Amino acid sequence: MLEYRFIQMSLLASFLISILSALVGTFVVMRKMTSVTGSISHSAFGGLGIGLLLGINPIYAALPFTMAVSAFFSLFKKSIRISEESALTIIWSFGMSLGIILMNFKRGFSGEVLGYLFGSILAVSVSDVWLMFFAIIIASLVFGLFSRELVLVSFDEEFANLKGINTKLFDLLFFMLTALTVVILIKVAGVLVIMAFLTIPPIIAGRFVKSLKSIIMLSFVFNLIFSFSGMALSFYFNLPTGPSIVMLSIIALFFASIFRKK
Question: Fewer CB within 10 Å, N or C, the chain?
């Protein structure tokens, strides 16, 4: 298995995905933003559709589109006169619908939809790897420089305001970082796998450790285990890689929940 070039590239991609997902995903779960992440992921379809229609790299079109949608929600979520849940549903359905409509103008669009839903980690390219390196550097800088502010805003926004922290700015920064992560990983991991990577490992880790650094490190380990195991299942049993990773992570969450109850 390891002698194949595409497997080596996939393992490297899984390693990078695990780092990025652990960093961003821990804060996603801590801020109870899993539904927001799902909406951001699905809204990216609008940008992907624009890219495919214009004949440019879909990721390059999805990045500004998704970040714009995320910025709009972050800045105006409190002034929108509907519930947050309703706003997220609208964003989700808008992005998906726009993307599928635009993809419909290209032949074989259904294959594109499936590709971006589940990703293609076994077909990762050198450019995909460099994009992930870029995202990891950005995420590391943001969390390294502003971890205190982000933690305070995540746990108690009112207290953060009293401490003089610009909560709107750091809320926007986190939304932008989440959008960046989602778009860069969407081709390799796919929408459904990204959501599993960002949410399930931190939830499992939080059942065993409590400190922020420990949750991030343990989430990284779980992401590696799920991705490597999913690829092995895919390779030896001819199963789709993305769904295999998702199912393994869900099974692990189920057993972790049972174990912690005892």
Answer: C
